[in-house]
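[Meeting: bench + compute handoff]

Bench side (C.D.) handed over the final construct sequence. Compute side (W.E.) agreed to return the predicted structure before the next meeting so the bench team could plan truncations. Sequence as handed over:
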Amino acid sequence: MDAVTLRGAEVQKGLRLEYCNVGYNFLEAIIALASGGAASSIALIGFGVDSSIETFSSLVMHWRLRHDDHPLRESIEQTSLRWIGISFLLLAAYVAYESAASLWTREAPQRSIPGILLALASFIIMPVMARMKRRVGLNLNSAAMVADSRQTQLCSYLSAILLGGLVLNAVAGWWWADPVAGLVMVPIIAREGIQALQGKGCDCHGSCG
């Protein structure tokens, strides 16, 4: 295969991943928001908002991949990276707000079987999706795709935080574990957003733009 054919195959692989990601995140957001509302759980509602933000990131990346053969591909790449960076900062702001509100109101994660199953499924699925996205991003030399893969990876971290908060609250009564873990994540998420806005969404040792 020549380089153009190989690149086209990677683009199609990336598009399939983004289609799957959008579909899963849309379903994830509906389940999280519905179960969070039923259980009056700020943590689950926040997880639904995270899913919505990640859906936005995937849609941006879908736009970027659909224009991979455009003459202005590099400009589109940088625009996509900036929008993904903005989505990171939106996520950081929401997690900070949600966590602070939970601590202020002493809101404990409520027991929700659909929420627990959803968090467990995301904890298993999202790391696999993130690795596949990252591989495509590196093969395409796309900083935007690599940044998008990091957002997918963050979804798995937030799933683990949600699960941990539910378990620790149930077993040890540590109602504050979930929001504190969320606050710990805020600077990490914000740092990713700032790096993406600065055009540093890829750690491919200088190969990405």
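W.E. noted at the follow-up: The first helix runs from residue 3 to 39. C.D. will use this when planning the next construct.
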